[in-house]
């Protein structure tokens, strides 16, 4: 059962308002009959889609008394959720504790440090799975000092998208959306948005993941070789597709040249998935999300553009 958090949580203790991001028509990938749309999720506090889940997790924890100024929010992250936590909690003067793989982009680490986060770097070989294990060990050693947010298992993660992202997409497309495409990381965006869109209309859901355990899509999971998040519903997707990282990097350049947008690798991968869906239909409105911009991936930017 879904619990409506209510509008008052948007300003609870001064937390910034989230959501209501623009829906952009990607003209260079669309035709008159098959249109590809993308939610500009970088226009959020913290600069990414993760503001939605972070806001919901923090709000729910404050309301239940699990989180306050004397208890530190603790979680594992590949970067964007950590930045969202830190940005939202900064308004309250609270400092989160984040377990982050040491191979996260230097831009993400620098931003988290600037936000005052207590940063614990974990094995680059174990990714976010390893970071989660470290977070669990820290929490077990001193549970009274932390609220372990556990975004991969926290129901507030997917509910945030059920209550906001899906509703916005439905309204912005006037209920004309035919397909929703999203990559799998924590799986909150796909699970929450997809679940609600299925209730609202006849919407096909397409889940994306990397085609290899060794990939360049930061924040995504290759579920066959990684821990499957507890919030993921494996029966929800109508179609599952795999995306090649090299193709995603090429798409970054294409979108920069044709749309003037400098999008992240995961955003580019979502668009590749949308293109594959578009190739198999004669009419429809395909919606995906672009989690963040290329600003947080300077090494990728340099590799693609040479500067």
Automatic annotation (TrEMBL):
The question of whether Aminoacyl-tRNA synthetase is a record keyword is answered with no
Q: Which UniProt keywords apply?
A: Pyridoxal phosphate
Residue ranges annotated for the Tryptophan synthase beta chain-like PALP domain, each copy included:
17-291
Q: Which cofactor does it need?
A: pyridoxal 5'-phosphate
Entry-linked PROSITE patterns = CYS_SYNTHASE
> What's an example of a GO molecular-function annotation for this chain?
transferase activity, transferring alkyl or aryl (other than methyl) groups
Name of the protein described by the UniProt record: Cysteine synthase family protein
Supply the PANTHER family for this chain.
Answer: CYSTATHIONINE BETA-SYNTHASE
Record GO biological process: cysteine biosynthetic process from serine
Spell out the InterPro entries in the cross-references. Answer: Cys_Synth/Cystath_Beta-Synth, P-phosphate_BS, TrpB-like_PALP, TrpB-like_PALP_sf
Give the top-rank taxon of the lineage listed in the UniProt record for this protein. Answer: Bacteria
One matching Pfam family is PALP
């Amino acid at each position: 059962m879904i619990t409506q958090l209510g509008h008052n949580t948007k300003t609870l203790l001064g937390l910034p308002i989230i959501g209501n991001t623009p829906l952009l028509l990607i003209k260079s990938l669309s035709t008159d009959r098959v249109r590809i749309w993308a939610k500009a999720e970088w226009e959020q506090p913290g600069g990414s889609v993760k503001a939605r889940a972070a806001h919901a997790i923090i709000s729910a924890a404050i309301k239940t008394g699990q989180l306050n100024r004397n208890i530190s929010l603790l979680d594992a992250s590949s970067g964007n959720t950590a930045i969202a936590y830190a940005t939202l909690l900064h308004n309250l003067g609270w400092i989160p504790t984040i377990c982050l793989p040491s191979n996260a982009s230097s831009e993400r680490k620098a931003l988290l440090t600037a936000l005052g986060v207590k940063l614990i770097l974990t094995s680059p070989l174990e990714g976010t799975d390893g970071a989660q294990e470290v977070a669990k060990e820290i929490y077990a050693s001193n549970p009274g000092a932390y609220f372990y947010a556990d975004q991969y298992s926290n129901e507030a993660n997917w509910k945030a998208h059920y209550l906001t992202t899906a509703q916005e997409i439905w309204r912005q497309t006037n209920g004309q959306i035919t397909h929703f495409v999203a990559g799998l990381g924590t799986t909150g965006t796909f699970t929450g948005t997809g679940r609600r869109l299925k209730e609202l209309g006849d919407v096909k859901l397409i889940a994306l993941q990397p085609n290899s355990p060794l990939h360049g899509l930061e924040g995504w999971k290759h579920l066959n070789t990684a821990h499957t998040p507890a919030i993921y519903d494996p029966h929800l997707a109508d179609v599952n597709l795999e995306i090649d990282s090299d193709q995603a990097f090429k798409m970054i350049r294409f979108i920069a040249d044709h749309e003037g947008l400098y999008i992240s690798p995961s955003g580019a991968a979502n668009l590749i998935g949308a293109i594959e869906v578009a190739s198999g239909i004669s009419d429809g409105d395909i919606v995906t999300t672009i989690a963040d911009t290329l600003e947080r991936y300077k090494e990728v930017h340099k590799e693609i553009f040479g500067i």
